[in-house]
Amino acid sequence: MGTGTIATEHMVSAIRSVGHEPLWVVSRNNDYAKSFSEDLGIPRTSTEAQQALSDPAVSFVYVSAARSRRGHYVSAAAAAGKHVLCDGPLADTSRVVRALVERCAHSGVALAMNQPLRASNIHQTMGRLVIEGEIGALRSLLIMRGAPSQSPNRRSEALEEPADLLLDMSVQDVDLARFLTGRDPIEVSALPTTPGDGRRQQMAYAMRLAGDVVFQAYESVTTAEFDSMVMLAGDQGALIAHGTLNGKASGTLVRRLGARNELIPVRDRDAHCTTVEGFVASIHKPTPWLCRGEDCIMALRTVEALAASDRKRRTITM
After folding, report:
1. What is the pLDDT of residues 251-309, one digit of tens each?
2. Domain 5-116, CATH homologous superfamily name and number
3. Which segments of the protein form a coiled coil according to its record (predicted)?
């Protein structure tokens, strides 16, 4: 449901890679639906979600629509008893997402987010090594990424909505921080960077996570592109991932112990294929690393607190 770039370039092939076949393309724009269907070899199209959802051959839906339409499609799928994998975040506010999560739970359908950062084999390896004590007691997390602002290539329903750094980037990084550390934010503080027109093009912020772990982040769409960095630092060493947030390559992982760097070999996997595989498996048995609706609620609550910190010029307690 929806014909965005992520669906076009990644998710249709990912769904096929795990043995499922897309049957319907649903879009408000009939021309988009038809050209998407022809390009990717999907047999049926519709501008009405219910037409596709009433097909007994449909076992789950993937939602790639603009944020303003995701709630509509998720609600329709829940009412039809279809499991849902959706691009994140589900909506603009945590309140709306909570209602959607409750609706899916009431209908007994699985709801998960397409969050490739969780599916990254490097990030999963980092989280495992922290749990195993490879860097000692965790003390801090640093995330940095930047790139010039780019318009989506190819047709995209997301063109209807203006870019919002908090919803397009910060919400992903907050979820990644929770995933890597297993800890929730306690306090958040944003460095005021919002210009007079209200458009956030760069963000710098810090958080205190449970267990006195410090999380710091810098995100920008105003810089030349540079290798992203994710660093987990403990009292005995650090894990440093480069290039895992740009969506173009799997990146590298280094462990630093005793003032020496050690490259950690990590098997490359397509994050979108891993996500679909994990989602399909989760319908029958929990997949611990998968991003759930509850995770989306927490990430949105956190970026809402960041927005309040930016606006009020003070630290916000969660």
Report:
1. 999 999 988 999 999 988 889 999 999 999 999 888 999 999 999 999 999 999 999 99
2. NAD(P)-binding Rossmann-like Domain (3.40.50.720)
3. none
Q: CA-to-CA distance for 4 and 269, rounded, in angstroms?
A: 22
Number of helical H runs and strand E runs in the chain: 12, 15
210's CB contacts (< 8 A; 6+ apart) are 183, 184, 186
Measured in degrees and rounded to the nearest 5, phi and psi for residue 30 equal: -65, -35
The amino acid sitting at 308 is: A
CATH number of 121-269+290-317: 3.30.360.10
CB neighbourhood size of 131 (10 A): 10
Count other Cβ atoms within 10 Å, centred on residue 11: 22
β-bridge partners, 185? 209
Give the chain's residues under pLDDT 70.
149-163, 194-198, 248-249
Would you give the DSSP letter of residue 160? Answer: G
Q: Please tell me the predicted confidence (pLDDT) of residue 198.
A: 63
